[in-house]
Amino acid sequence: MSQAARERVIAEAKSWLRTPWHHEARVKGGGVDCANFLIGVYAACGLIEEFTPEQYPPDWMLHRSEEKFERYLLQYTNPVDEALPGDIAMFKFGRTKSHGAIVVEWPTIVHAYHAERMVVLTDAAASSRLNEHFTGFYRLKEWC
What we know:
single chain; two-stranded antiparallel sheet; 8 strands; 30% helix; 30% strand
């Protein structure tokens, strides 16, 4: 995929900065969680069709082993070994991969982070919590 498309993804992701974290929401400036943040960004860039995932409790990853997040992710992406800008970084909290972020330039990510209560720009390598839970990168299928 073109560099321009990757730049659009990064610009759109950054336009969500400081949006409050809110479970199952997807309103730029109003509230969003990490899954809906990814959907909102890639849909706004015309790279996926907007959709609503099935309902999920905020602590689903603590009580179940089903990889719900990854199941949706694999409909649109493939795992890759190294990230390029606009790719997705995934993290495992609890039993499953349960937190996604958009790579600006690894290890810098934009994500709707519950711990920060908003969409933030983070150095994932400098955050021991994120660094310890990192599981891998994913790239949109059309970019592979």
